[in-house]
Amino acid sequence: MSAIRIEDLTLGYDGHPAVHHLDGSFARGSLTAVMGPNGSGKSTLLKGVMGALKPLGGRVVLDGFGRRDIAYLPQLAEIDRSFPAVVADLLALGFWKRRGAFSAIRGADHKEMEAALARVGLSGFERRTIDTLSGGQLQRALFARVLVQDAPVILLDEPFAAIDERTVADLTDLITHWHGEGRTVIAVLHDAELVHASFPQTLLLAREPIAWGATATALTADNLRRARQMVEAWDEQAPWHEHDHDHDHDHRHDHDHDHRHDHGHGPAGQDHDHHHDHPASSRGTH
Length: 286
Fold this sequence. Notes:
alpha/beta; six-stranded mixed beta sheet; globular; disordered C terminus
């Protein structure tokens, strides 16, 4: 049974597509990596699934879920650490879908937050200001907020970018635990070795789908090469349905172990996070 169905989906910004004609489904309880070169539409797809970006064509269907049942973790690079907030404030945002935006935090909520912080290795961090956290600590705190949300669908946008290996290993274990609980988890990733080891399903994007299925068959060297070539061939300024495969940009990168962030290359390649998420909010300037 599917959790999310994608039907002829095209997504983009200002009429310039970043994801073209995607069809398929994420099975309920599946664990899927979304892979592809910079500018391939990975983060854009997550925004379309969560409803933050209106499709240019096609649709996203949530089978048995609503948008409120989705927990979304933005790119770490988009979090504004200067916002005057402590870790407890960050976690408290995880309750708003259950309690309402302005409801008070209860005693039981504090216990739940303490348990979530302990689960990610941040016991005693409740009163730490977010500007004092390392990248790995902030990512752990954001994962704790996802725990508090207790959502059946979890979207993770580059959860392992620019953090230490120990944190990657600990948070991968948590993702595996969510999968074991039957949650549907979709994560934008760059590390092919990690995906082969821990993610049973992979969607390989190059604005258009290259492969979608079992990781061993989707994430082959040939498919990765095709994905790079397709992204390089897109005309960045072309409107929807129009592209020029002869206009070849020299954007070659090695993405198998690349933990840099998707910043795209103009309107058609925007893979930015424009989701405002207070108190750790998107910067809003790129």
